[in-house]
Structure formats: C-alpha cells, structure tokens
Amino acid sequence: MLVPKITPSTTIAPELSRAISLLPAALFTNAADALALADTMTVTSAWADVSSNDNVVDLLNSGLSVAIFAADSQIPADCDKARTAIRYTATNDVIAVIDQATASGITCAGAVILELTSEQLSEATQKDAASGSSALSRLTKAADKILLGTSGPVRVLVELQVSVGGIGSWTVDLLSQVAKDGADVIVPADALALSGDDSGAHIPLAEAFVAGSGLTSDRADGLFTTVVVDEQRVCLGVVYSSIESIAAAFTAGEGVYWSRRRGLWHKGLTSGATQTLVGINVDCDSDALCFR
Fold it and tell me: Can you give the pLDDT at residue 196?
C-alpha cells in the first residue's frame, strides 16, 4: 500500500490532491488537520500522529481512522487497538528497533511504522546469510500472523526520514524492495506527481502506486486483472489495466483501462457513460486491482 504523507506545509496541485484521494489511505502529521483535510480531499482512511494532549478516543469517534503513537507513548486503555499504530524512529541500531517492534509493537497495535534513514533501510532489507531473509521481511511475516479485531493482519509501514530540501529519497526501486519484503510505504505527497519530470524530484503517482503496492502480473502481456465495482461493491465487470492506464485513471478521476484489442480505453468517453472513480485498491495477493 502506498500512503502519501501530508504536512501543514505540503503544497500540491488540486489534480494531484484528487488523485491521492483515490488511494486507500493518507497520513497526516496533525490530527486536527487530518479530520479537516480528510473531508476536503475525501480521503478513504485518514491516519494521523497524535500527542499526549489529544483526546484520542474522541478523534477516532470523529472520523480519524488510525491514531499513531510514538514508541515511548502510552496507548489509552479505552482505545481500539486495531485503530492504533506505533511509530519507531531508528537511531543507531536499526535491527534492535525492528526486534523491539517484533517483540512488543505488533502485539498491541494494528500497525507499526518504522522511520528510517536510507542507510538504515538498506540494512533492514539486506538478507543475512543465516536465515536467507531480511530483518524487515521477518517483521512483516510475524505481523501477518497476528489479527486484531476484524481489521486483518497487523500492518508494517516504512517511512524514510526527510532529507534536506524536504523531499524524501524514495525511488521506484526502493518502493519495490520494501513491498517485496511485505511492508507498506509512506511517501511525502509533494514527492509525487501525476507525471514524472526531468529533474527526478518527483515520482509518477501510478509508478509509485504499483511499486509501493507490490503489484505484479502473472499474465504474459503484463496486464493487471482489474475488477470494477460500484459504490455498493457490486461487481460491474472484469477488465485489464497497465501502468499507462492507471496513470490515465488517476489523472482523469474516471475509469480508464487497457483493452487487449484497442489499447488505452477511457470507458464511456464516446457514449458519455463514464465511470467516476471513488477508489483504487490492490487485492491481498497484490496481483489484481479493484476500481470502485
């Protein structure tokens, strides 16, 4: 899952804001901003960092989806644990932090967030000779075995500490690596764009979505099976998508797919029966899409 991060200083174009609202979740650094902007952007699921001064239960009852606590904070006893996350900021020993998240974090919250430097991420995703797996993948496998309520397995998310200049150092390759290890990714919203640029400062949203979701295809043509449903989640049909058509769908905010006969296909562009998109999701196996 790709989770854009929005801070009070984040400035993004309305078109990108609309596209981000199609993603499963967005993270805010301020709970009050989360509730206000989530309504403005119609974000499906709003996550936000909270402090000891916040009435977390009231925030959750008011529409906040997930409250994020620092690792040294106390989660209120009356909080729904499935709707909480614990943020671990690595200092020197990233493996020790991951071990801490494995031992305690995934057993008492619905998600854990690892805030790492690029160097620490490289260490966390490095396979060791003894187990043939990385520390990050061992954490995600342990988290996948734990269920809290009806929200599914505990999630693991990775956030890169912001570099000088305000843009994180995520690349498509790094997003793919983290997704292969079973974790979700938190990317600054202003590091994304509907299309790429020559400077390389922005990652195209469609590429970030595919890489960060670990989306793969088992088809020879590389297309992604896509189930289209209405707002009541009644199936309307099965089509196919490509990175190009996903990019076009984000840009248009409408159903755009890849026809095996005609190529790029904007549903209803000729007839007028277009499909307004509400959300785009990846299935649990990361090999199919759902357009709603």
Answer: 64
Q: Is the pLDDT score of 197 beyond 80?
A: no
Q: For 249-279, what is each residue's pLDDT tens digit? A: 999 999 999 999 989 999 988 888 889 999 9
Residues 112-124, mean pLDDT to the nearest whole number: 93
Question: Strand ranges (DSSP E) for the chain?
Answer: 2-6, 26-28, 46-49, 66-70, 84-89, 111-116, 155-160, 184-188, 192-193, 203-204, 224-229, 235-241, 256-259, 263-266, 280-282, 288-291
Q: Report how far residue 140's alpha carbon sits from residue 158's, in angstroms, rounded to the nearest whole number.
A: 11
DSSP category for residue 126: P
Q: What angle do CA 100, 101, 107 make, to 5 degrees?
A: 115
**Residue 100 corresponds to which amino acid?**
Q
Is residue 247 classed exposed, middle or buried when 0-12, 13-18 and 19+ CB atoms within 10 A define those classes?
Answer: buried
* Closest to 240 in 3D by CA, of 219, 258, 215, 256: 258
Q: What is the pLDDT of residues 1-17, one digit of tens each?
A: 999 999 888 888 899 99
Q: From CA 238, how far away is CA 240, in angstroms rounded?
A: 7
Nearest to 224 by CA among 286, 182, 284: 286
Q: Record the tokens describing residue 146, joined without a space.
A: 């734990």
CA-CA distance, 105 to 69, in Å (whole number)?
A: 11
Amino acid at 83: R
